[in-house]
């Protein structure tokens, strides 16, 4: 399970580098519901809610740990806990989805159980922020796009209702978060070493570090250069610093139409916003002018996604609205 331990350690460290607190539940490294089955935590991320009473801060956390039901939990205060590095029993019958075969997601996926009653309890801002960050960290460490982040009910639509969140909105928020973090440099490997990530090849790693796969294979005693594991730490030749590949120039962000140009369209869109109950009541009646309700709504969206809260639909705000699906 060393590979999964390394993978989750990197996910946790990435979250910490973003300012999130990640608590490690004692024994997480060896907690595994199916120790004899090979585990790849990078093919799918499945979000659940735990259907716990809204009065409990931690919800079902202790039960989830004891019964090995997910790798992560997030409580109502937004605290992220790393519970298990092995397979957990969370997905059940469902799929196939994104190449994960029918009824067989547990050995190929990572799960989070989020404390929420699933009966319309609003997610707190702290809770939502932690969910989005965890899913973004998973995408970045697994080398996956946000389409691989799914709700349990998307895996098992005939059996499950969780989470009661519009997963298209969730994925849009995760994509926006990944984009905001991708400009920052990735955490550096220790000098003279490289940690293998999903999708790496020995030849690709060698090229990126100015050497050949033959040298790396010899230096690391690799019998078969086609077999490297995610999380494996490879020695690099010499002390020369690796030459980073030039970053591709970012594409200009797509902008939504100006929401003030069509207040009713914006109000309709906002009323369908999945976290709106935690923010403001529905805008009613719809009004074809930009009044105080529209202004407050736009400011709430700006605040939630970390933009300047000025109520002005400038380029950054319109890029955000575009990512969130607003098309006027
Ligand atoms: Zn579930």
From TrEMBL:
**Which Gene3D superfamilies does this one have?**
LysM domain, Peptidoglycan recognition protein-like, PGBD-like superfamily/PGBD
Looking up PROSITE patterns in the UniProt record yields:
LYSM
Q: Name the Pfam families on file.
A: Amidase_2 (PF01510), LysM (PF01476), PG_binding_1 (PF01471)
Record-annotated LysM domain positions: 192-236
Q: Name one GO biological process term.
A: peptidoglycan catabolic process
The record ties this protein, via InterPro entries, to: Amidase/PGRP_sf (IPR036505), Amidase_domain (IPR002502), LysM (IPR018392), LysM_dom_sf (IPR036779), Peptidoglycan-bd-like (IPR002477), PGBD-like_sf (IPR036365), PGBDSf (IPR036366)
Cite the GO molecular-function annotations of the record: lytic endotransglycosylase activity; N-acetylmuramoyl-L-alanine amidase activity
Q: What's the protein name?
A: Putative peptidoglycan binding domain-containing protein
């Amino acid at each position: 399970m060393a590979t999964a331990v390394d993978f989750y350690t990197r996910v946790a460290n990435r979250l910490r580098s973003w300012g999130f607190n990640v608590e490690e539940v004692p024994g997480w490294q060896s907690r595994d519901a199916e120790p004899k089955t090979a585990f790849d935590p990078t093919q799918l991320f499945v979000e659940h809610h735990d259907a716990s009473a809204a009065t409990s801060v931690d919800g079902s956390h202790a039960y989830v740990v004891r019964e090995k039901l997910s790798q992560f939990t997030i409580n109502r205060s937004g605290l992220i806990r790393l519970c298990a590095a092995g397979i957990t029993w969370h997905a059940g019958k469902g799929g196939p989805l994104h190449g994960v075969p029918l009824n067989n997601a547990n050995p190929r996926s990572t799960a989070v159980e989020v404390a929420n009653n699933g009966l319309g309890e609003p997610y707190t801002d702290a809770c939502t922020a932690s969910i989005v960050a965890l899913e973004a960290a998973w995408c970045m460490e697994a080398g996956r796009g946000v389409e691989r982040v799914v709700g349990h009910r998307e895996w098992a639509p005939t059996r499950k209702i969780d989470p009661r969140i519009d997963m298209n909105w969730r994925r849009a928020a995760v994509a926006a978060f990944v984009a905001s973090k991708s400009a920052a440099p990735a955490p550096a490997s220790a000098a003279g070493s490289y940690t293998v990530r999903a999708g790496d090849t020995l030849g690709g790693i060698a090229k990126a570090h100015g050497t050949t796969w033959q040298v790396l294979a010899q230096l690391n005693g690799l019998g078969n250069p086609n077999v490297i594991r995610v999380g494996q730490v490879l020695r690099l030749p010499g002390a020369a610093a690796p030459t980073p590949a030039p970053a591709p120039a970012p594409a200009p962000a797509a902008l939504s139409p100006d929401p003030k140009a069509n207040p009713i369209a914006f109000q309709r869109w906002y009323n369908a916003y999945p976290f709106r109950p935690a923010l403001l009541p529905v805008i009613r009646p719809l009004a074809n002018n930009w009044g105080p309700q529209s202004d407050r709504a736009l400011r709430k969206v700006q605040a939630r996604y970390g933009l300047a809260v000025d109520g002005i639909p400038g380029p950054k705000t319109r890029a955000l609205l575009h990512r969130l699906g607003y098309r006027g």
